[in-house]
Structure formats: C-alpha cells, structure tokens
Amino acid sequence: MLTDAGYEIERLDKPHATEDELVEAVRGKDGYILGGIEDITEKIIDAGDKLKAIVFTGIGYKDHIPAWQYATQKSIAIANTPSAPTHAVSEWVLAMTLAMNRGIFDLGRAGKKEFMTTKGIEGQHVGIIGYGHIGKHLAEMLPAFRPASISYYSRSTKNKELPTLLAESDIIFLCVSKDAGENFMDKEKLAQIKDGALLVSFMASGIIDEVALLAELTKGRIRAASDVPMKADGFKNLPLSIWYCFNGSNAFNTTTELKLTSDMAAQSMINLLKTGRDQNRVN
Asked: 10 Å Cβ neighbour count for 157?
C-alpha cells in the first residue's frame, strides 16, 4: 500500500530496537510506523528531522510513545489502530475464561485430575470493567455462551456501579487502559471481588496491584488469568488453575488481526502524509 502510494520503505527488522538504533533509523524519514515494542523518546523525536507522522500498530500508544506530547508539540501527527485487535483480544479473553473455568489445566496433561465438575460460562454472572472497543465486543459475543447476566462499568457508560459489579460477578473482564491510572485494580477493589470469581486481564502491566493480587490468589479466594506476566516471583509458585499468564503479551497476535492492523496503519500513514503535503502546498 505504501509503495503503491509512492513512498519508499525502510524496514528495521528488530522488534525491540534500542534508542540509538531508532535515532539512526528515523533520520530523514517522513513517517514512522511503530510495529515493534520499542519506546519512542524525545531523543528519537529530535533525530526525526523530517518526521511528520507516527502510527502505532495497536491501541494504547502512550505506553510505547512516552514522548507523544513532545512529538505533538513539534507538529508530528500521531495515530493508532484502535479497532484492529478487538476481535483477536476478545477471542483470547473467552478462550482463557473457558480454559480456567472448564478446568483445562487440572484435567489435561498439565494436571492430575481425571474427573471434575466445572462451571463454564453458561449460567455465570459476567462483569466487564471498561466499555471501549473490546469491552463492547465481548458483550456482543457473550450471549452465545448463555451467561446468567452481563454487567458493564466505565466512567461514561455503565449499567451497574463498580462495587456492585465486583461483588456480584462470577467472571470479571478487565478492559481498561493505563489511562485508568496506576494500580487501578487496587487492594480495595480486589477485596470486593466475589469469592471464587475469575478475573481476566489483557491490558498493560501496572493496571493491577501485583502485591494485592498475589495475596488474594495465594489465599485461593479468587482466580486470575493475564496476557501480561507479573514480575513478583510468588506468581510462579501458584497452581495453573489459580493463576495463568502468557510469557509475553500475545492476546492480539493472530494472522488475521496482524494483517488488519498493518493495513490500517499503512492507510493512516498515507492519509497523514497526504494531509501534510496538501497543507504545505497551501502554505
């Protein structure tokens, strides 16, 4: 798409490039599509002497562009692909919910049990915290699994207050971004979760208070699954039926969603650079 639009592409085929490598890479470039997990600092922005646009292939660009305000002050446009990972992440959330609730780890080769009655999703009360693209998509997918109820809460849209949702839900999907604040799911909120409930999170690290979560899991009061690993060593000692996480974030990582994300990022870059050219002509 970019080549057909008349742009030359230089690919830095390294998913976690260093600051110095990125400084060299952005010099003389009009646009930068952030497809890895590198962080864009002020030093990198300063090196982009011709940089007009940055496109992040994901949702929460502020995590990987800590210098985003500095970039906008220098009239560099920033875009992301907010709806691209929606289905893949929602699919992962449901897969983890089924794995944890249907006893996959206990009943399979990783466990020792041969017979166990499980809960599934049917008949369970489901709570969704955060009602953006993914939260809404989950609410649309869930009826096929026949839950007893679906509750949701966000700052702008809700059908239940957060304390009530936490106390009543058998399954809780945490769909908030870092904008919700550090340790949004803190000790107080975790304590309000219903005994035996399952908490499923796929957002960036720092959303959940690790110390408080580890304490609840160690007691066996609740269970949890996360797309992002926790740093504390204590999590590694928990049984898989209580705590499961990926070694690194992969909830979004399907071939279909990567293609969609790539196409959206390329089209956004073309649009942003075209707008910049048109403005230059007017000026």
From this structure: 12
